[in-house]
Specification:
- The complex is a heterotrimer of chains A (504), B (277) and C (364).
- Chain A is an alpha/beta fold.
- Chain A is built from 19 helices and 13 strands.
- In chain A, α6 packs across α7, α11 packs across α16 and α17 packs antiparallel against α19.
- The longest helix of chain A has 32 residues.
- Chain A is globular, with a radius of gyration of 27 Å.
- The two termini of chain A are 47 Å apart.
- Chain B has 277 residues and is α/β, with parallel strands linked by helices.
- Chain B is globular.
- Chain B starts with a strand and ends in a 13-residue tail after the last strand.
- Chain C is globular, with a radius of gyration of 22 Å.
- Classes of the chains: A alpha/beta (504), B alpha/beta (277), C mainly alpha (364).
- Chains in contact: A-B, A-C.
- At the A-B interface, β5, α8, α14 and α15 of A face α7, α8, β5 and α9 of B.
Chain lengths: 504, 277, 364
Amino acid sequence: MQIVCVSRGTFGGGKQLAETLAKKLGCVCLSREEINDAATAAGIAVGKLELAVTQRRPLNEWLNIEKERYKAFVTQNLADRALAGPMVYHGRHAHLQLPNVSHVMRVRAIMDADMRTALTMQRLGLPRDKATIYNEQVDEDRARWARTVYNIDWQDPGQYDAVINLSRVKADNAASALVTMTQLPEFQAAPADRRQLTDLSLACRCRLAVGADARTRLSDVQVKAREGRVLLTYLPRHHQLAKIFPEVLAGIDGIGELTCTMASTNLMWVRERFAEDDAELEQIVDLASRWDAAVELVRLGSTEAADAPALESALLGAAQQADDRAGLGGILDDTANVELDYGDPGVNQTMQRLTSSGRVGGFRAVRGGTKELLTGIDRTASYSLVVIGQVFLDKPAPVRKRLTRELIGFLADKLKVPVVEAAELKAHYSFGWTQGLRLILTGAATAGLVALVLNHQVEILSFLTGPGTLHRALCAAALFAFAPVFAYLHGQFSHHVLRLFRFE
Amino acid sequence: MAIITISRAAKSGGIALAEALSARLGYTCLSREILLESARRYNIDEEILQREMSRPPSFWQRLTRERNRYLVFIRCSLLRAAQQDNLIYHGHAGQLFLEGLPHVLKLRIEAPLEQRVAVVCAEQNIERDAALAHIRRIDEERRRWVSFLYDREWTDPALYDLTINLARITIDSACELVCKAIERPELLTTAAATKALADRSLACEVKAALVADDQLWDQELEVSATDGTVAVSGTVQSTKQQQAVAKLVPLVKGVSQCQLHLRVTSDPLPSGAPWKD
Amino acid sequence: MPDFFSTSVFIPLTWGTAGQVILLGFIGGILSGFIGSGGAFFMTPGMMNLGVAGPIAVASNITHKFGKAMVGQKRHGDLGHVDKKLGIFMLATAAVGINLAVFVVKHLFAGGSDPLSNAKGDLYISVVFVVVLAAVSLSMARDLIASRKSGDTQPSRRIVDLLARLRLHPLIRFPVADVSVSLWVVLFCGLATGYLAGTIGVGGFVGVPAMIYVFGVPAQVAAGTELYLAMFMGAYGALNYGFQGMVDIRLTVLLLIGSLFGIHLGTYGTKVVREIVIRLVTTSIILLCVVSRAINIPVYLRQLGLVDFDPAWDTTFNLASKALLYASGLTGAGLILIFVIKANLYRRRVQASLVTTPQGTARA
């Protein structure tokens, strides 16, 4: 079940490379153009989306929804093809469409600028300077596409497993080298990958169904799936559709359980073990309900964790079930609809607690450390806060502390949102004694300043309009200092007041 | 069989790969040795050379030609080592010194930042922020270095034949890949390749002899070589310098014939080196 | 102390006026949080209707904006939404623009308490206000109508496309925003932003769209950079106007009291309503503000002796203008508040997670 994604530039020889490779591997070769045509045929405005990106227009609400639909379409196509057998895809950023599938081989094909220009000149019949400009513009458009759609820098070599320069190598020989690469142990499918592909396909089918239904077409929803449990998150402004979503998704095969959560943002909670009776959980639930957030659980287990084999078998079992169900041709009888288990009582209970308070945002298990967690993160998802609970439990305390700090640093860099340790949660985000005190202090300071200004109007104004250059400069400086101080104090005050009334 | 140059992001595991490759293929693995050899041969303080090669040039140095001298020496040593073939070089800017030779595989090693930071943290037992700063500094120095030499971004994959990201690929697998890659017919050490390397090496030896000379060190002279025939072209400032060139070139080992195309400017500019130490 | 206020350019402040200024700040804050760029279009004319002289209103508002931007910028900066390089480039020209604006205003307003120059200053500010914001709101309205038909709600952009295509060298690269723009285009936009900010205090209306549509900067970065810019421009404006003794610190404080509350609610509002509604509300509010200001123009014209009618009409015009402004502001802010409160109530009432199995049996 090989999946090779070749990212290519215009006239960079990538297409030929991909086709040769597919022939050598004896598998399907799929191109971006084919998928785009299919997406357009399915009613997704791919052309308008591309136009908006190349013309540097910000995407509006409608185009953003089209973008999500387009991504879902591509992912579903790729995942289904990959499940059917080995596949070579060539296009732009296919590997991003299959997140957390560990055996996807990500290759980029490039060519020296001079050779590319020569090829462009030859194929488009352009003079040299025009061809150079043409290529530059194509690259710029592509970079913008990657940034708009996936929020990544496509030039970054870190995104690919290998970058092949085709300037000096024939496509045939490069393809042979890639065949060697596909045989490496790193690019062999693990059972979890198959599971992930099935889940991706399911989630995307749900997303497309929402986009295809006239009632829900314009709603902004995110769909995740894990082991047949589908989670749909929609924005508060679509609340009247809450009852309609289950109807829309009723006909989709493979849904074991559907949860629809209304949330305007996401909150990621990373821990190694989850338990039900937990002060941290209550804090998070409280915060999430104030922020209107869905809570995504991430269990970050180290590779040596004792429960790893158990989890693996649970996953295998689930995969088996899904396959069995698929074999039934989508007819679900009662026996097939067993309660799917997250394979961990703590997680089950935590999820139940979140469900009862309406803040479910999905669950993900990551085995490994910081690196593994970072690779699976969707950089277009909107998180408002990441909370790091107790992780790296098997390490001695100082190492644990260092690793946790490392994790916080990298997450903050990558997601550009606040990342806090669970212990600091109370101090920063809930309303306790400190906040109350601050509210009172800043309130008093603000009131004091206002009273000062209003009680001494004439003095202050005559001071501010007094003659003399030096005096005038002094006035300006006084205003310059006063305005931000007052704004800061009052800003803090109003922030705390609104927090008290749960407006955030 | 071939020559492999490895350019690596700081702490990405490039050295480990170079060593593994060397063990597997039986190739010589060189990095700092080239520098030491140059220092010994041209009688330069090793530390100065080391410093000059690892730091980006200062603004002042961009104006003078001091650094170019060192570059010629190092290139010369590297080309000489390359003539032995079966070489892995993971030192500074190898891909640039050996550019254009057909049997050189230019390799670039990348690794995710978090992986590299973890390596530094564990090695030096420091905090993440310090490790990150350390890595950023080294990367930035190397970047400026390459952009000084070739006016290119050093991470630009077009500078290399193959870029390998060690995020998921292990060192063993990367080894496997490279071994397969150097079996490609394009990379065979053909007679033509050997000759191209020998010619380039000879030209570089002559150039090194010229810049090692106190009188000629800052003259911009072009040297090319074919089968022992060496051609030197450019402008010198006096007939004395012209004579010095004519005297020096035939002394270099391997030069059988020498063609000088020198123009003498009657410019009364001082030919000394005011900034030389 | 009637003697002080009768000879100064400042108005006497009663509890009533103070309350109205706070309300202005609050409404302006809601609108600015909702629309995303400055609430000055409401606050400046609002204060002028309370009897505050135009330049004093502008000066006090710009000082208030300085404080507000400083607080807001810090948050955006933490999120990495500020392109400092772009900010500095725009700033350099915006400073020139502001200076020009301050010079013009000062020149027109040279006589201090002289009613004639007062009227000149007011007329000038009002005309600029009406012309610029009418252009902005009409183009927004046109987009809205156009988008009804196609579903693709893209602003029309003929001039903007022209500017964006103008790739005159030297091109400058802005790393955070990830765009390259011609230096001249940046300078031009900066100048326009600064000039308008200095004159009517609504630079953001030109700056943010310019950054988004002309430069191609992502919307969040544009908003963050604009705040960064506004901070410096506000500082500069505050210093400049402060030096000339035009800042009424009382008004600044009162505005801040209202606006910092309002802005939170306005931002909350954008999360709970659809984009088309946001645009509809924005357009109508700006349009009404423009009309309200336009109604006042004949009064200034009469004071300058350019048209002739019974001075008794002044009050009518003033009243109509005031009514319209308040009507627009209050309806807009009221609508937004209703959205916010409804969403908030709904949020508490509804069961946010609905779990079903394919058989359709709800569990929670």
